[in-house]
Amino acid sequence: MDVRLQLFLVLCSLGFFATCFHLLRKGVMEYKYTLLWILASVLMLLIVVFPEPLFRFSAFVGVVDPTNMVFFIAFFLSLMIIFSLSIVVSDLTNRLRKLVQTVALLEKKVEDLKGADDAD
Q1: Using N-to-C axis directions, what is the helix angle for 31-49 and 3-26, rounded to 10°?
Q2: What are the two backbone dihedrals, phi and then psi, of residue 10, each rounded to the nearest 5 degrees?
């Protein structure tokens, strides 16, 4: 790997890590979501700094070009992040449905109480 490319990728990884950490500190992102992105940036940094294990692993798996292995790892990490976010969205959807139902029941009780007061 060319040294200039390696240095550029290291700077990109560190910049991404710093951005994730900054967003975590400001409270823009929650810890559990930021952790996935931080782990992805650390993994990318390790692959850039130490490419030999990637080369050996890609040869062991049977991938001819280590670049294809990098794309496969990135695709797999993206799938993991999408899966975890799908779980979060599903949970929030269920919680929102329960909240809307509770609010509707409370509104109905308030209307019934107002109707009872008006009848007296």
Answers
A1: 170
A2: -65, -45
Name the one residue in this structure whose structure tokens are 């650390």: 42
Q: For 60-108, what is each residue's pLDDT tens digit?
A: 999 888 888 888 888 888 898 889 889 989 999 999 999 999 999 999 9
Side-chain-side CA neighbours of 91 within 13 Å: the count stands at: 6
Tokens of 27: 């409270």
Q: What percent of the chain has pLDDT over 90?
A: 34
Show the CA angle centred on residue 25, arms to residues 20 and 27, nearest 5°: 95
Alpha carbon distance 63, 72 (integer Å): 10
